[in-house]
């Protein structure tokens, strides 16, 4: 990843201007901190609020439901299909986009129309702290954003100190059941597993998130199976693993659920999911 830069324009240019490099390596230049921001991912909506920029948000995609004020934002489609006209009507100073989740053609169209696009594509927990800081620069809320980033790093470091050197727990993280999907070692979910002293059994998967054969999971014989699902309720399909009673995770009742909003979203709440993950993996260790 290229170095993140935050530079102020010389006073001879525009004293209040900002320049920020996003996670694609693209430099964004604004004449002044953004006053009108549109978020194209629920996680980015959460990050904006955490960075003190919630009052600058004028629109967001579906499922931007945290914190509570986000539910009142005008909708601009969903992460996979953005309503271009709705975004344009909001006259944003900048659009916060999810690099691997939003349609590239639509992001290119925003740029063609002169709307700056800030690309976020976090692959580590530190990237989340960096995003807080960068959004704070974009929105002119650096003091609040920098404090949020410091608190995030301190909480992450406390979890790392407590759990990362504990005996390794071999984990299969199930994103979805049909088709059977998981994540590789570059995904933030893998970062959470490592933070808790676990090992993602499919870290070598070529894609960030992709299909895996049932036979491969059975052969790997994980110590624990952890899944997110669609909402805060435990997905019924986790019970399908009971068909393989010899599987170590089934035999020892180590099949767990973490609400997806706490682990699938690249926001400060991922540490809530990490705390849950660490507690679950500790249960596995205590039973061995």
From TrEMBL:
Q: Which organism is it from?
A: Thiohalobacter thiocyanaticus
**CDD domains documented for this protein:** BtuF (cd01144)
Supply the InterPro entries for this chain.
ABC_Transporter_SBP, ABC_transptr_periplasmic_BD, Vit_B12_bind_prot
Q: Which UniProt keywords apply?
A: Signal
The protein, known as: ABC-type Fe3+-hydroxamate transporter, periplasmic component
List the PANTHER family: MOLYBDATE-BINDING PROTEIN MOLA, VITAMIN B12-BINDING PROTEIN
Q: Which residues form the Fe/B12 periplasmic-binding domain?
A: 36-288
Q: Name one Pfam family in it.
A: Peripla_BP_2
SUPFAM superfamilies per record: Helical backbone' metal receptor
Specify the domain of life of the species encoding this protein: Bacteria
């Amino acid at each position: 990843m290229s170095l993140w830069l935050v530079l102020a324009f010389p006073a001879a240019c525009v004293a209040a201007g900002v320049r920020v490099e996003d996670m694609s390596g693209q430099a964004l230049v604004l004449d002044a901190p953004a006053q009108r921001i549109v978020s194209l991912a629920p996680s980015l909506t959460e990050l904006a609020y955490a960075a003190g920029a919630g009052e600058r948000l004028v629109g967001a995609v579906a499922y931007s439901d945290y914190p509570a004020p986000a539910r009142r934002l005008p909708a601009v489609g969903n992460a996979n299909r953005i309503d271009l006209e709705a975004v344009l009507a909001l006259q944003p100073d900048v659009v916060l986009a999810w690099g691997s989740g939003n349609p590239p053609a639509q992001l290119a169209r925003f740029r063609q129309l002169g709307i700056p696009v800030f690309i976020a594509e976090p692959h580590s927990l530190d990237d989340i702290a960096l995003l807080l800081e960068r959004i704070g620069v974009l929105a002119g809320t650096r003091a609040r954003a920098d404090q949020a980033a410091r608190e995030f790093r301190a909480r992450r470091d406390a979890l790392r100190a407590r759990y990362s050197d504990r005996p390794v727990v071999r984990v299969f993280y199930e994103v979805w059941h049909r088709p059977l999907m998981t994540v590789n070692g570059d995904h933030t979910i893998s970062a959470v597993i490592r933070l808790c002293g676990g090992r993602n059994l499919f870290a070598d998967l070529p894609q960030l998130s992709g299909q895996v054969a049932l036979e491969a999971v059975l052969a790997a014989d994980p110590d624990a199976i952890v899944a997110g699902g669609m909402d805060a309720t435990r997905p019924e399909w986790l019970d399908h693993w009971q068909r393989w009673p010899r599987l170590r995770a089934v035999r020892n009742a180590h099949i767990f659920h973490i609400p997806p909003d706490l682990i699938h979203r690249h926001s400060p709440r991922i540490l809530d999911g990490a705390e849950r993950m660490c507690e679950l993996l500790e249960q596995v260790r205590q039973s061995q």
